[in-house]
Design a protein that fits this description.
heterotrimer, A mainly alpha, B mainly alpha, C alpha/beta, A: mainly alpha, MetI-like fold, elongated, B: mainly alpha, 15 helices
């Protein structure tokens, strides 16, 4: 009711047409604002990925004379204890984060879609089995599950990428099953089944089109989780090979000299990660607003 | 801590799933939980057994050169490493059923003892963070929901979404730098003053050491409770029964207390219990930052130093912990929301 | 301020609404915005002791009338127009302050009760809000008046039957002895006897001195208890007629749409009225 509390009394002159006057009271141009935000976020994220790729080889150069310098125009993020430029190392680390995020999104998204389709068209047993699998993957704290998988794969960068990629499907699967069940209950699906169309046909022709928007958004929103989990694993020392500039490793390193007052080593890479995660999240949310306008009504 | 905020609608459907299970009879539910626990045990064992890391090498560590092949063979035999995996699993599972989880290699104590000690330390940390984040998150969520669309709501929602994207350990590092390094209000590490055992430290000292890790955990854990409570509050506010209450002249605090709080509390409580899983993940990171000797730190050490029995024990324990959290959430939800009571009775 | 306090003289109408308009802003796929005007000019007045029926097809914006008068529209809606209570022009905030005492909404059914609170608590709360001195006694009385035993007070809404829930809603709305009652579709899906009972209840409320607005699509039922009928179509009120004019083949009815509604009833020519595109 807050919108009404803001001084819109009943004192408007009678007989005055309400249309244009009322329109003016609501915010303007939400559509173009959404599109602009979406585009800007995409551009920044892509720029980070490209910069990280370009700096990949040069970011490792140690420069001992200029070690542990606070942020300056030459080194906007300062330098670490080997004199390496922290901004460059952060960008390379973010590129890795985005890579992990992408692979997790692609793999977990595909798994979620497959399992959801099986659950929706496969009958009650298939649904129960998928539900059980989802519960199984949610039975352990996510980080513990990641540690176990990474451990099984012997650790290292590839192990982390795989562990993160294969564990982010359960919640998205639940969402897709719920959506799929809704559209599977629709009349045209029942008619299609009655016409003798098989399960694969129903899944491809009638369910997939309804699931794709949710899948797209869900996959983008899964990104941040994946990125943060990768960083957490690396921070614990269970992920990316130490020495490689992943954000988690940069932050773990920063702990050594935090008490010496080298704040920038901890603050800036973490802040950069936060910004990237937030940007990807923005892309997902703005995309959702475009696909599902009701979510934006309030 | 990473938060699941896929979509508001998605979050609700995700919550609807446990409710469906809730409609199964108690027997079926028990069977389901047991089957999941067995699957966790098998899965964890398979994963650990698949590791290419040689457990003996890991155990021996730096003394590798000093250990002869005979000693190696002795260790392998003692651990039963020569046996086929299935036999090893059977032996391990048999022991687990009798309550024997083996001996931790890095601590040299029974796994059950290590878990019990460490969990006691983690429990105070998690309990404090859980209460703090629950109360603060619910309160702020109510406020944001009742003021939806105003600047109060915008600031709170923005803050919650921002925290949801922030790495827990980074938040911990920031707090550590500000309060322990710069202001020196709080200790830099551990659960007790350096040189004393946790058991010897006074309650005040222990609280002092607990403060910052708990604050780290609760700061990040606030955001899902806040956002879900906000959503539930908005739904309640738009409901027919609140419209009718307004039509009777109910407004302001009275309306919130009588018509909104209870309706929003059910989902919030369920979420907060289900979040125990995330909370444990967060405690892993917070304990690492503050070198707090809890179960989370033990988990990291077990994985880093290839302590297979401890890792398996912790996997099983956390699974039970998560299930217990979900079950408690169901019970409490049923107490708060009379409709949930009917669903189970039906 | 209930009926006794709200000094309503018989000359000035208890409720007087002029040219009420309600518009909604909606977002379509791709976030294209459009404004939908759901109520486009409704005018209606009701005097103490009177039942005025607001009749129209579903989607004619009738229910919005009640919500707008009470100042309870959703946030994406805007209302304009004049609303007077007891002769005083009141804005939405002032109307919200009068809600429950001067003015109540009597809605349709069980979803208007808080699912997490017991019946007794809800009726007592309404009594307290209406300023009744002994809320517990007033609640018990309001429930008993509607044939509900004391045991009902301990039940939760989901434990009530549809008919019981409706009566509880009536008790909650009526416990404050309001000057104006806006009854929103009180009869759909009821047995004929239940319909008659619900409508007679409204008649009694009016005979007790309240002004009652009966929002309904059931013209025949409305004619049985009303003093006047206001007809609305596609969001605006088009005609007002005395109950006595609804007779024979409808020759006494001035407006063609009103006549068409009357003739659509069995036994009056049985012609379906032409419906323009529904507004909401």
């Amino acid at each position: 009711m807050t919108a009404l509390d803001e001084g819109v009394g009943a004192t408007t002159r009678p007989g005055e047409p309400a249309g244009p006057d009322l329109v003016a009271r609501f915010g303007r141009g939400r559509r173009s604002r959404t599109l602009w935000t979406l585009g800007l976020a995409l551009v920044v994220v892509l720029a980070v990925a490209v910069a990280g790729q370009l700096l990949q080889t040069s970011a490792g150069d140690p420069d001992l004379p200029s070690r542990l310098q606070p942020p300056s125009p030459v080194h906007p993020f300062g330098t670490d204890r080997f004199g390496q430029d922290l901004l460059q190392r952060t960008l390379v680390g973010l590129r890795l984060s985005l890579l992990v995020g992408t692979s997790a999104a692609v793999l977990s998204g595909a798994l979620a879609l497959l399992l959801a389709l099986v659950a929706v068209v496969g009958g009650r047993v298939a649904e129960a089995v998928v539900g059980w699998l989802v519960d199984l993957f949610l039975a352990l704290p996510h980080l513990v599950l990641l540690i176990l998988i990474s451990f099984a794969l012997g650790g290292g960068t590839l192990a982390v990428v795989i562990a993160v990629a294969v564990t982010h499907w359960p919640r998205l699967t639940r969402v897709l099953i719920a959506t799929g069940r809704e559209s599977a209950g629709a009349d045209h699906v029942a008619i299609s089944r009655a016409l003798g169309h098989g399960r694969v046909h129903v899944a491809r022709r009638h369910l997939l089109p309804h699931l794709v928007p949710h899948l797209t958004v869900g996959t983008v929103l899964l990104f941040p989780h994946a990125i943060l989990h990768e960083a957490a694993l690396s921070f614990l020392g269970l992920g990316i090979d130490p020495g490689e500039p992943a954000i988690g490793i940069l932050l773990a390193d920063s702990m050594r000299s935090l008490s010496a007052g080298h704040w920038w080593l901890a603050v800036l890479p973490g802040l950069a990660l936060l910004v990237v995660v937030k940007l990807v999240d923005t892309i997902g949310n703005q995309g959702r607003a475009l696909l599902d306008p009701r979510s934006h009504h309030l | 801590m990473v938060v699941d905020l896929l979509t508001d609608g998605a979050a609700r459907t995700a919550e609807a799933a446990p409710a469906r299970i809730g409609r199964l009879g108690p027997v079926l539910r028990t069977v389901r939980v047991l089957s999941l626990l067995v699957a966790v045990a098998v899965g964890a064992f398979v994963l650990v057994a698949a590791s290419p890391v040689d457990p003996v090498d890991a155990y021996v560590g730096a003394d590798l050169a000093a250990v002869g092949p005979e000693q190696r063979a002795q260790i392998e035999e003692r651990w039963g490493l020569g046996d086929p995996p299935l036999e090893r699993f059977a032996a391990w599972a048999g022991n687990v059923v009798t309550g024997d989880l083996g001996t931790s290699q890095i601590y040299g104590l029974p796994v059950t003892t290590v878990i019990a000690d460490r969990f006691a330390a983690s429990l105070s940390l998690m309990a404090l963070a859980w209460l703090l984040s629950g109360v603060v998150g619910f309160g702020l969520g109510l406020l944001a929901g009742m003021r939806a669309g105003t600047w109060v709501d915008r600031v709170l929602s923005w803050w919650a979404y921002l925290l949801a994207s922030a790495p827990t350990f980074w938040v911990g590092l920031l707090l550590l730098y500000v309060f322990s390094v710069s202001l020196q209000w709080t200790p830099v590490c551990c659960a007790a003053p350096i040189g004393t055992l946790p058991g010897e430290a006074s309650l005040l000292e222990r609280l002092h050491h607990l403060l910052l890790p708990a604050l780290t955990l609760s700061l990040v854990a606030v955001s899902p409770v806040l956002l879900h409570t906000r959503q539930a509050t908005i739904e309640a506010r738009e409901s027919d029964y609140v419209a009718f209450a307004r039509a009777q002249g109910d407004r302001g605090t009275g309306l919130v207390l009588h018509r909104v709080v209870r309706n929003a509390a059910g989902p919030a409580l369920m979420l907060q219990f289900a979040a125990l899983s995330e909370l444990f993940g967060g405690s892993l990171l917070a304990e690492q930052v503050f070198t707090y000797p809890g179960l989370g730190e033990a988990t990291t050490q077990a994985a880093l130093r290839q302590d297979v029995p401890l890792l398996l024990g912790i996997a099983l324990f956390t699974a039970v912990f998560v299930f217990a959290g979900n079950a408690l959430g169901d019970v409490v939800h049923r107490r708060v929301d009379p409709r949930a009571r009917r669903e189970v009775a039906a | 301020m209930n009926r006794r306090e709200l000094d309503v003289s018989v000359e000035s109408a208890a409720l007087d609404v002029r040219d009420l308009r309600v518009a909604f802003v909606q977002y379509e796929r791709g976030l294209r915005r459009r404004v939908v005007e759901a109520v486009r000019g409704m005018t209606l007045s009701a005097h103490p002791g009177e039942v005025v029926a607001l009749v129209g097809a579903s989607g004619a914006g009738k229910s919005l009338f009640g919500h707008a008068v009470l100042g309870m529209l959703p946030p994406n809606a805007r209302a304009t127009g004049e609303v007077r209570l007891g002769g005083r022009l009141l804005d939405e905030a002032a109307r919200r302050r009068l809600a429950g005492r001067g003015l109540v909404l009597l809605p349709q059914g069980g979803s208007y009760l808080d699912p997490t609170a017991r019946v007794g608590a809800q009726v007592r709360r309404a009594a307290r809000l209406a300023g009744r001195r002994d809320p517990a006694a007033a609640a018990r009385e309001a429930l008993a008046e509607r044939g509900l035993e004391a045991g009902v007070e301990r039940l939760y809404p989901h434990e009530l039957s549809g008919g019981m829930a409706r009566r509880v809603v009536g008790a909650v709305a009526g416990v404050g002895d309001p000057a104006v009652v806006i009854a929103d579709e009180p009869t759909p899906g009821l047995h004929p006897e239940a319909v008659a009972a619900a409508l007679q209840g409204l008649r009694r409320t009016a005979d007790g001195g309240a002004a009652v607005v009966l929002i309904t699509h059931d013209l025949r039922g409305a004619l049985g208890v009303s003093d006047r009928v206001v007809v609305c179509r596609a969001g605006s009120t088009v005609d007002e007629a005395a109950v006595a004019d609804f007779a024979g083949d409808g020759a006494g009815l001035a407006h063609p749409y009103t006549r068409a509604l009357w003739q659509a009833l069995p036994g009056h020519g049985f012609r379906a009225p032409a419906e323009p595109g529904a507004a909401s």
